[in-house]
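User: what does the whole thing look like in 3D?
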Amino acid sequence: MLSRDAQNLYWMSRYIERAVQVCRFLTNQLDAIHDSPHDDIERGWKRIFLSLNRQPAGSGLMPNPGDDYFMLFDAYTLTDDLAFEPSNPDAIFNCLSKARENARQIRSVISHEMWTSLNVAFLDKKDLRLLDIWEERPRDSFANASIAVETFRGIVEATMYRDSGWHFFRLGRFVERALLTCSLIDAQLEAFPTRDSSAGEAWSSLLNICAAQSTFRRLHPMEYMATHALDFLVCDSRSPNSVAHALQEIAGAHAVIAAEWRRSPTRCSDRPVGRARALIEYEWPDRDPEDDAAVRSMLNFVADATRKFSEDVESVYFNYPITDDAIA
Amino acid sequence: MPWQRAGHDPTLALLTLRWPAGQNRGLSSLQLRSILACMVANQELQGNSPDHTTNGRESRLFSRYEIDARIHDEMFGQDGTPHRHCRRLHDALNAMPLDRIATMQDHAARSFLEDGITFSVYGAEGPQERIIPIDLLPRLIDASDWQVIEDGLVQRLQALNKFLGDIYGSARILADGVIPVDLVYGCTQYRVEMRGLTPKHGVYVSVCGSDIIRDTDGFKVLEDNLRSPSGVSYMLANRQAVSASLRTLYRLHSVRPIGHYGALLRKCLAEMAPSGVSDPCIVLLTPGVHNAAYYEHMFLAREMGIELVQGSDLTVHKGFVYMRTTRGPRRVDVVYRRINDEYIDPLVFRPDSRLGVPGLFLAFRLGNVAIANAPGTGVADDKAVYSYVPDMIRYYLGEEPLLPNVETFLCRERKGLEYTLDNLDTLVVKCVGESGGQGMLVGPHSTRDERNSFAKKVRSNPSNYISQPAINFSRSPCLSPEGAVARHVDLRPFILQGNKTRLVPGAFCRVALRAGSLVVNSSQGGGGKDVWVLEN
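Assistant: Here's the predicted 3D structure for the full assembly of 864 residues, as structure tokens:
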């Protein structure tokens, strides 16, 4: 497969994963603003923006940047920032738009059904503004957008040829998921420390954002304990939204890609991912459940390893120089 | 479908199923089809809108259609009756309720939008994606007319390829004084770098798109596009959309298929591969997603099953071209380039080009890669050189041209300049280096100020202009909210050349959607139509 095509598939998949995640953020947060305590709503917004490493547009004008200023924003402004703000690279519409641009570049290698599905999802949102949906039930719009994107992924699953392109698509999805989940949990521990015994609802909403609520309830029906939720989202590899599962899929997809590389072994090492998997498997269970700092340090290690791996993928498979050595 | 086996016509099967046993004995296939056409029209009428009058006023598709006796009409004769080969289509469409036809038109346009069948227009707001307007009513061409076009275009392309081989070789035609030397060597599209270089089979032009118009005297070639002719994807997309909307009528008309264009193009390109390469790696080189014709590039790459590459995907290493793949570098044998000459190699042509591949021309010179169309073909589609194509045909093939040119006056010649300036109000004046309807004056539709301003430009650089009579080329029915209206149409068939010449029986038919307009270019408000070339 042409390297640029693989790169487009990889990034299309990452943008799609990000768009779904932000849709879930908003669906969940817009549900919360109806009946949650004021403080929880504020911390909920803070969790979202921390996990995306972003400050809302205009927050630089605040008197003390870095303070907890989410109270000063209204839900409409924050939602608009996450959904339609042109300067926010993680805004849903921007992610969809970039994914569609990626798809446009590779229309000759993806199925017609994939293109049509993504193009229609994009066209439906193209001229939409928050004002158009705010008076109705805005959370439904984001829930529907999430369904449209998941439908696209279902079509990918059903129609895409299982060549290396498919594995790059898989790679993109799970690299993004590992990064987003690590970042989200990190933001959760910042906004709702585990020692905060009143944060049960926040852990419940975290599971909702990760689309892991119902499974978690089946395994832990009694109450939302932070430590159980953390274990479930980090190291339970049977859950498709856990970090462990994402790393497992990354390793699996890369094993196929590396085997196809003409010169063996490939210069792209999955050792960083291996180390991250080892940490989750062998060190995570021995952690002090009360020590949020240690947990966050582990998650940062996993995120850094995933980022390093992603950079290697870019340089080894997408942007490599053509030399005698490469041609031989 | 299981019942659609070879030699089995599902239309006739349907008729046989509905017809009382024994009653179709003795009827020919043609008679059966005619009966079925009426049945289809009647059934559509009964099933959808039995009352197709509005407030007691007749509102059929062609009830307000106007015929102009001075202009050839593609569907109607001068007496207002449909041409023989158009009767069935005319009768069936005229029997359909207007709202039903409008709905089908909407579906076709919607399918273009959802499929992303777009072209880019550059304006103040940057590149904008637009769909090319599609007109649902097909243009029909009968078999004998198509044969004239096909024979004429094959002849023309053979002469053009010989001309290019000659001017980049011994230049006999110039030495013999058939074409002025300065016209060729002074042309901006002449590539001195191509001197002494002969591509495989002597083929410089592998893909040609010639624009053909028809007036009351018959078909004429308006211009040849020999660099990167575009529009073939719209030909195929129009066919898909229109045949899906008018599926029964399409099936009844024995329309010659065009869906094998991609396979033919691939075959021609494979024949251009360097000697000794049995399974060539062919790529389509595109400037990228912001190019106006990007959809077409993607479409053709998909149809041919080849990689769609950009300059950054290719590298030249030790005289060979490689593309970057996820399995390592892969050698490329044929580049079907859709970028202009001056951008293909910054080491030879424009040094500031970021679209091309450094060293590509060297690999081409070494014979390690084929480039289609070869660099330097633009000299043969220059609007001034165009006027000599009939002479080329006589010179190289010893034949009379089967398709005439439109009469052309060269402003570089004194008589041509005087005639042009004296008759600006009746002529179309074109800038030789422009395309896409740019830099053009349509005399009969211009104001006095526009003509004066254009005359100044022509006087300041006469060699840069040619003029042609404003031909009232043919019109064809197009859909409007009030029913069918007559609009001017041209025809762009695509001719392919590998070790032999091939073309599919079809063309991209461009329509000037504005009433009275003669400009069919999509960038200037033109649209497209499906062309049904009928079996004999």
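In plain terms: Chain A has a mean pLDDT of 88. Chain A is about 70% helix and 0% strand.
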